Amino acid sequence: MNTNQFIEIEEQYGAHNYHPLDVVIERAEGVWVYDVDGNKFLDCLSAYSAVNQGHVHPRILNAMIEQAKKVTLTSRAFRNDQLPMFYKELSEFTGYEMSLPMNSGAEAVESAIKLARKWAYRVKGVPRHQAEIITASGNFHGRTTTTISFSTEPLYRDDFGPFTPGFLTVPYGDAAAIEKAITPNTAAVLLEPIQGEAGVIIPPAGYLKKVAELCKKNNVLFIADEIQTGLCRTGRIFASQHEGVRPDMITIGKALSGGFYPISAVLADAALLGLFTPGEHGSTFGGNPLAAAIGRAAIGVLREEKLAERADELGNYFSERLSEIPSKHVKEVRGRGLLIGVELHPAAGGARRFCEALKARGILAKETHDHVIRFAPPLVIDKDTIDWALPKISEVLQLS
Ligand SMILES: *Cc1c(COP(=O)(O)O)cnc(C)c1O
Question: Which domains does the chain have, with CATH numbers?
Answer without folding.
Answer: 81-304 (3.40.640.10)
